[in-house]
Amino acid sequence: MNFLKELFSKKRVIDRSCKVTLSGRPPELSREAAAPAAIDPVTGQHKDYWVLCEKEIAKGFVRPVRTKYVHKKCGVETSMGLKLAETYAVDPKFYAYTFCVHCKDHYPVSEFYWSDSPKEDVGS
Fold first, then answer.
1. How far apart are the first and last CA of the chain?
2. What pLDDT was estimated at residue 100?
3. Which residues make Cβ contacts (< 8 Å) with residue 3, sequence separation at least 6?
4. How far apart are CA 87 and CA 93, in angstroms?
5. Pairwise CA distance, residues 101 & 41, whole Å
6. pLDDT averaged over the chain?
7. Percent of the chain beyond pLDDT 70?
8. In a domain, 47, yes or no
9. Rounded Cα–Cα distance for residues 14 and 101 (Å)
10. pTM of whole model > 0.85?
11. How confident is the model over 74-88, as pLDDT tens digits?
C-alpha cells in the first residue's frame, strides 16, 4: 500500500518532445507538426504518426493499453496499432485528434469513446 501511495504522490512528467515516427523513418514534416507526414488522399490517414519514444513509454502507463475506439458520430469502431495505444496509455492527452476508419477523417478525441469502456472518452 505504501508503494502505491508513493507512486501516485509523485508528479509524472512526460517529455512530449521525446517523440519518434511510428514507421521509424525520418519525419517528412517539421517536429512541431501534428503529424510527421502528410495525409494520404486515398485513406485519409497521415502517412505516418508521432508516438512517444521508448524512454517515455518506459515511465509506465497511467491508463489501460486499448487498441479500439468508437466514433460517437457514426458508431463505427476503429483499431490502432500497439505503439499508438501505448502512447495514449502513457499520456492520454498526447493526441488532440484521432482517425475514424468509416468517416476517413481526423476528429477531436472527445468525439470517441473506448470500445471496452463506453463511458470513458478517448483522451480522458
1. 26
2. 98
3. none
4. 9
5. 13
6. 93
7. 92
8. yes
9. 29
10. yes
11. 999 999 999 999 999
Q: How many CB atoms lie within 10 A of CB 28?
A: 14
Contact between 22 and 53 under an 8 Å Cβ cutoff? The reply is no
* Residue 5 resides in a domain: no
In a domain, 7, yes or no: no
- Which residue bears the cell 512526460? 14
Question: CA-CA distance, 95 to 80, in Å (whole number)?
Answer: 13
- As a whole number of angstroms, the distance between CA 58 and CA 68 comes to 22
DSSP state of 123: T
Split into its structural domains, the chain has a count of 1
Nearest Cα residue to 11 out of 77, 66, 82, 59:
59
Q: How is residue 94 written as a grid cell?
A: 498526447
Cell of 50: 508521432
Could you tell me if residue 9 is inside a domain? no
Secondary structure (3-state) at 17: coil
Q: In what order do the strands lie in the sheet with 77-79?
A: 77-79, 68-71, 112-114, 117-121
What's the domain range around 102? Answer: 14-121
